[in-house]
Amino acid sequence: MTTDQQTPPNETAGEYPKFYYPPENVVENANVTAYAREKGFANADELYAWTIENPQQFWGEMATKFLDWYQPWEKVLDDSNAPFFKWFTGAKTNVVHNAIDRHATGANKDKAAIIWESEQGETKTYTYAQLAAEVNRFANILKSQGVEKGDRVTVYLSRVPELVIAMLAIVKIGAMHSVVYGGFSTEALHSRIEDAKSKVLVTGDGGWMNNKIVELKKITDEAVDRAEDIVKSVIVLKRTGHDITMKEGRDHWWHDLAAQPGMDDPCPTEQMDTEDPMFMLYTSGTTGAPKGLVHACGGYQVQVATTLSFVFDIKPDDVYWCAADPGWITGHSYIVYGPLMLGATEVIYEGAPSYPNPGRWWDVAAKYGVTILYTAPTAIRGLMRFGEEWPNKYDLSKLRLLGSVGEPINPEAWRWYHRVIGKDRCPIMDTWWQTETGAFMITPNPTTPLKPGSGTKPFFGIEADVLTEEGEPATGADDGLLVIKKPWPSMLRTIYGDPKRYVEQYWTRLPGFYTAGDAARKDEDGYYWVIGRIDDVIKVSGYRLGTAEVESALVSHPAVAEAAAIGLPHELKGQAIHPYVILRQGFEASDALAEELRKHVGKEMGPIARPETINFVPGLPKTRSGKIMRRVLKARALGLPEGDTSTLEA
Ligand code: WT7
Asked: pLDDT below 50 — which residues of the chain?
């Protein structure tokens, strides 16, 4: 099997312990321990076994434990039309009721929901009541722009509280958000607007990153110009205050719309069917354009709330910080919806981890007394390189739990995180999941003995396995396909506009099972080790990019006839993009052209997609049917055997 990462080292014989055990007080006080005891179980393992026998009872209990419903469900799971599974059918709900409304009128009214700090040092705090008022106002603004239930609204903003407010307001009125990460650029934004057919787009004049302005509005203008007949209204948040162009009739300042009469009138939260779509989020897949994954109103919130409570163990006094971007699924589930559903206080920081110096994150963590920190291996590796003296300058003693997501974490980075940041006292929750799964699937909880680099075992109610292509259990040191054997509440429901692709992509490789697209290994203790993607997805700094998107960006340059992109290992980013390019007649390979192409991809897709190198080649290895064999390019680049090349064109 072709994989992206090296198999994790076998550490049982090394100088390090096999297991890192969580401190006793953490286990004793964990939310999950309380629930296990309530159910009459001695520990989390016994609880897990019960949830696998009774998944519907388990998820049903979670749905009442963590959430309110306008109307109860008839069935927890309807599997009559698999793989189009339905959850909590017959119920009425809205996640905004659970995340906002009930807190704003209840005991959490004056509790801080969001503490925001910008790179430039501005700070802002929203209590639950204040957040509710902002969400209400923006919901009215959206309605004034013609947004109705079922409409798709594209949101393209930097990491500001208004991004969270916009998302919540969209869902409040029963529309769907399609958030495009603020680090993406023109073509990435355009293709997502085009596919979602969003009449309304929410953006800002700009955002801050590394003391530079990200030209959100300028990029929006270019993207919308390519989709002129679709977007009728662009709502612009004033953030940086620098000069931008506003197009008469199409563009409106957020604050001007907010000043319209009636915007503070109460806007009812729409009562949704559980299977109504809640949002879509584009992600890169094996082939072609990014696909809009659709999540539904009922099940998504149940699994997000449950996993956040049982894995990150949120308690009323916690200060939780997920350093991801709301523009990715991590931010959707564990910045926007999860913490607010649980009535938590969370920190949102806009900007780069190392601005103005590599102590910035630790400064933020110390300043707000962060107790739970959730980030990605790439950020840890990046900060690690500046040395321990930076974190050691700050008081990180409030930290209780740490988290990691996005790609496998190298044991070396894990140990640094555990020792230097967590002072050997904070268990690390290495959470494996995907845009598709909506919430954690394979993850420790605070009672789990840990192995650095392993996401440990499936979450309660989740049945997973590692299988061969033939559907047999992969044994010993062999890699296999990571599969999920039973439906789960926060699963994607379909690919927007393409249900056939949903079935083909996820449910046909091993019929009856969901194939995740990852290679994995299960060790002798039943611990899972995710090795990497087996498809054409490249993970750059944990961000998911498709070879196809990078290639079409390259081919849109007049010099390029054909391109093939592969991901190769990179010390900080995990993987970096290395395209192979065939030039059109009349163009000559040069360093200047390579630089121009790198910039071009950065401009079309976004800085994260900028290739590391450009390799000019006269031809590409192809199958006889004309498919580029990226696998062969990769093997050649890494000096590895080329594998089965029997289909390679002579
Ligand atoms: C892919 C999904 C889920 C939020 C962020 C990524 C990789 C994710 C881990 C982890 C090893 C991981 C997988 C997966 N991945 N978390 N803890 N250990 N690999 O979501 O962009 O949809 O990417 O990220 O390869 O398939 P995504």
From this structure: 1-13
